[in-house]
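Hello support,

Our group uses your service weekly, and this is the first time we've seen a run hang past the timeout. The protein is DNA-(apurinic or apyrimidinic site) lyase. I'm not sure whether the cause is the sequence or the server load. Input pasted verbatim:
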Amino acid sequence: MGAKVSDWRKLPLSLSELCIETTLRCGQSFRWRKIEDEWHCVLRGRLVSLKQDSSHLHYRVTWPTTASSPRTLPASAPSACLSPPPAKGKDSEEDDTTSLLHNYFALSLSVSSLYKQWAASDTNFARRAPAFTGIRILNQDAWEALVAFICSSNNNISRISSMVQKLCLHYGPYIGTIEGEPFHDFPGPEALAGSQVEANLRQLGFGYRARYIAETAHIVSSVKSPGWLLRLRNPACPALGEATTTIIKSEPVTQDVKPNLTPKPEQTDPPTKPPAEVKQEPEPPAPPPTYRTAHEALLTLPGVGPKVADCVCLMGLGWGEAVPVDTHVWQIAQRDYSLGKGTKSKTFTKTMYDAVGEHFRRIWGPHAGWAQSVLFTANLKAFKGQASNKGDGADGKKGEEEEEGGVVGSEGKSLESATSDHVTGAVKVEDGREEVVTETKTTSRKSRKRKVVAVAQDSGDDKTQVKVAEVEVVTRRTSKRIKYAAR
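Update from on-call engineer: The timeout came from a worker crash unrelated to the input. Re-ran successfully.
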């Protein structure tokens, strides 16, 4: 397929305002791929390539010049219901890519100024943030964020990226190729709502998440009204690709009434009074969304618990105050802010989840989710070398529950996982699959064993006698167990 490639362009942007090496790797978006020294991802039907120096963000765009090629489907998926891929013409405007990047990276906000505000109100942030400047919250497509974070349940960044890549490869339209690697756009809800999608995704290794994705796609594409996700957006934060804020409202369908031009016959009888016209009152416009209403609406979808809903609110709907609480954030809350200490609860309740978010909102303000992402990144093992000695954790120690590459969901493959399928406080549970936060319990156990030993004794006549004796050996074993509660 032919492609139209633009020249390199650049935006004046310091590393303190945006660091793509950190922002694109810290578990927000899972489609950026680094090839040599450049980052590549499909955004709004174009393949965007990025590289950065100390003063500028450089970008180049690859446009498809013909209709997108058919999507690659698993061999067992002949009847998957797919919507036709959008086609890009040869004369596609490239000038809006600058605006798109401004929107995607939310460059209207000065993140260096926000860092100063957070550091002034939080000594812990002031101590850890200098090693992690330029981390921004990406303003992503809400549908992509929703599906990606459904995949994040009980998962790590590397595996989530692999799943999202499979979704694009098998169901998204092809856009272009970089160094032999094909790039596809993210599939829409219609493409993932077919009757065979769940079975296909299970074959691709999605496990129980396959059902959640297929059911959510069906609900968003066929059950909810058009634009439902968009109506959950923060009105102050335009959707990706929009120049201005657009809120879609449900309005009644009206029809224009044409005048009756047919001549009236002469009336001999007194005219009768026409029946009173019944006027249909228009439905009142829906109230503007809030973070709370958006969060509650997302919780109605399969596979979406409080943490996934907060991830979508923060990174897909523009609600900067959303604070996703997973194992890393809970560890930070306990270790650095003394939250949850002394609690006797063995499970992580909704009350505890809400308390962590409210605590950070009080400290960091309306962009608490942005500040949380800085500390979250500093807590990932993948960035251990970037952190200062004092930024690695309490007394320079890393968090015990971290997995290689960092964990977005509730990892725990190498740790003991709770078997309970419920959490008190009415936190939403999805088949016990999405586990949250931890309880650390240290136990000590005695072990008694009888052992036969040889005992040397002096007989007093310069001879040594060896006797066999049976003794009891007492040992004490101390173990530390980290338990995860299902969410």
